[in-house]
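User: These chains co-purify. Model them together.
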Amino acid sequence: QITLKESGPTLVKPTQTLTLTCTFSGFSLSTSGVGVGWIRQPPGKALEWLALIYWNDDKRYSPSLKSRLTITKDTSKNQVVLTMTNMDPVDTATYYCAHRLRRLFDYWGQGTLVTVSS
Amino acid sequence: QSALTQPASVSGSPGQSITISCTGTSSDVGDYNYVSWYQQHPGKAPKLMIYDVSNRPSGVSNRFSGSKSGNTASLTISGLQAEDEADYFCSSYTGSSTLVVFGGGTKLTVL
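Assistant: Joint model of the two components:
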């Protein structure tokens, strides 16, 4: 059974760096073809893909946010970490991590709401 | 503005069928058979309902079906049930640096 869970701060101040951790079980990020991605959803708005890391450490970023994002993995801990710099109130959203296989996000975490406010 | 266009809301009575559309471009929906649909109840994680345009994951009711024509994908729910009331959103692989695009979501109300 694949499960993922996001963790991190619920409140960050403008200009700060956000660090989110995705802890997963039921699969290994060293298995060929497997990836873990991050997606966010501002309140009442659409989903937006942010970043993706594959089993072979290949990393992909949303072009619009690439300069602010870093995604890393710790295979031994079954964790993926996303950092986003220079946070702004418009970055207030629920952040999800999800398992990716064959060009598909098939299992998602429950998400964590991050509010950016001074 | 979302990359994929969905109606904001649809509604139907129990037992009826509804269809939700998802319109993209020739660079995403029109070019790849990697369209997926998700169901999301309030405060819950998105649940995969349809993948690769028309395939259902194990455990998903056969009342849910998907199709595609040109740049538009569709999700059809037949025999509407109260528990189907949720938000539904579509997603497509793009093959570009954007990689993945999502629809704005459709709120389904079961009357």
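Chain A touches chain B through 21 residues (CB under 8 Å).
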